[in-house]
């Protein structure tokens, strides 16, 4: 395929009304936008999305936080507490395929933007509600916050080193996972709509998705009937696996099977006898004797520079890599070659960058079609389109 050709957009022609704010809902809507949907983001006329005030300022009303979750969208400002703004939102919903909202439970219904009312006017509508807790539980009315759920779902209990207190993820992982799970459910509902002609009410909760993040750690906790030990950068079941120091800096090394361990000892470290020590001959044995093995490995690794060590590991076909700072990683040749940064000229703040979509289809990365919008940037454009759609729908058919 011609690398200069436009990437295919599988959701082209789909319209999404994004009534959500902060991160989980906007991340979901951005995933659909990346896949080609026309996403209309509704914002308060004065303050906009809460995240327009979070992070590093870009221009007058955009920020690093807002831009991370709102590429490929259009922004319209509507006062949903007023009759005029609410009427426009309802008209937009009637012309949309998907609505995403994260009002407090019952809030959308009180505004007349709930699933029952909107789907009555538009039976094909796929409507996604994101809340803090499942709507079938006694906590349904509690507001949801990523950090709170990280604590409640046990996520903080598995991060960090043994003996360290609770530790959150570096990013709002619960919000982000909830957004991605919501996107999956919406796509499933849209696929079903092809057969049934009717939409669905997708209901996602931060707490539910937070529990899903515990994954194999959660399964181990259930089997143990207690919290598993914490291993920091190491793996709970594979040894040696994690971050190790060369003479001049850290690397990541993952020895996932016995063959790799033999090559590590023989070809990289020059210690072939370790591979045949019964304490280290299988991964199960290495895991049981990690306290004896790891100091030996760490000491041997520090005899090499990082560059030399990575070359030896790669030659021995042992998975490995550099440990980079975030800015170093984002500006690396690897990131550039993959096309993961999109650079654009912002009308307010000059040259800017935004992360590109992770989706590759038919050999092409799906594009950033629109930079993160300024507050209300597309209000007039969307209102004109809405009027045109309604006039076309009302026109007599020949």
TrEMBL record:
Gene Ontology MF term list: CoA-transferase activity
Domain of life: Bacteria
TM regions (residue ranges): none
Alphabetical UniProt keywords: Transferase
Signal peptide boundaries: none
InterPro entries, per the entry: CoA-transferase_III_domain, CoA-Trfase_fam_III, CoA-Trfase_III_dom3_sf, CoA-Trfase_III_dom_1_sf
Name this polypeptide is given: Crotonobetainyl-CoA:carnitine CoA-transferase CaiB
Lineage of origin: Bacteria, Pseudomonadati, Pseudomonadota, Betaproteobacteria, Burkholderiales
């Amino acid at each position: 395929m011609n690398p200069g050709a436009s990437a295919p957009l599988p959701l082209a022609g789909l319209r999404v009304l994004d009534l959500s704010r902060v991160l989980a809902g906007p991340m979901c809507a951005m995933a659909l936008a990346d896949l080609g949907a026309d996403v209309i983001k509704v914002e308060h006329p004065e303050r906009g999305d809460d995240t327009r005030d979070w992070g590093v300022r870009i221009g007058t009303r955009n920020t690093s936080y807002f831009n991370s979750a709102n590429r490929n969208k259009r922004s319209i400002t509507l006062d949903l507490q007023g009759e005029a703004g609410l009427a426009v939102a309802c008209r937009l919903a009637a012309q949309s395929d998907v609505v995403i909202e994260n009002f407090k439970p019952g809030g959308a219904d009180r505004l007349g933007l709930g699933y029952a009312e909107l789907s009555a006017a538009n039976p094909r509508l796929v409507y996604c509600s994101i809340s803090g807790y499942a709507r079938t539980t006694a906590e349904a009315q509690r507001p949801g916050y990523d950090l709170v759920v990280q604590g409640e779902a046990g996520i903080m209990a598995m991060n960090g080193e043994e003996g360290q207190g609770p530790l959150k993820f570096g990013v709002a992982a619960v919000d982000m996972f909830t957004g991605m799970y919501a996107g999956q459910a919406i796509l499933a509902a849209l696929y079903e709509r092809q057969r049934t002609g009717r939409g669905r009410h997708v209901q996602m909760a931060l707490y539910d998705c937070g529990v899903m993040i515990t994954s194999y750690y959660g399964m181990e906790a259930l089997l143990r009937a207690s919290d598993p030990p914490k291993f920091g950068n190491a793996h709970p079941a594979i040894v040696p696996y994690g971050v190790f120091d060369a003479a001049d800096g850290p690397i990541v090394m993952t020895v996932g099977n016995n063959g790799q361990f033999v090559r590590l000892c023989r070809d990289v470290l020059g210690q072939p006898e370790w591979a045949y020590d019964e304490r280290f001959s299988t991964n199960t044995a290495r895991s049981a004797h990690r306290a004896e093995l790891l100091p030996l490995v760490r000491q041997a690794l520090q005899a090499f520079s990082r560059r030399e060590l990575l070359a030896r590991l790669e030659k021995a076909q042992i998975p490995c890599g550099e440990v980079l700072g975030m800015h170093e990683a984002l500006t690396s040749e690897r990131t550039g070659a993959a096309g993961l940064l999109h650079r654009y000229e912002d009308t307010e703040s000059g040259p800017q960058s935004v992360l590109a979509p992770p989706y590759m289809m038919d050999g092409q990365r799906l594009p950033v079609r629109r930079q993160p919008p300024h507050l209300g940037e597309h209000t007039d454009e969307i209102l004109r389109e809405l009027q045109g759609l309604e006039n076309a729908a009302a026109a007599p058919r020949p």
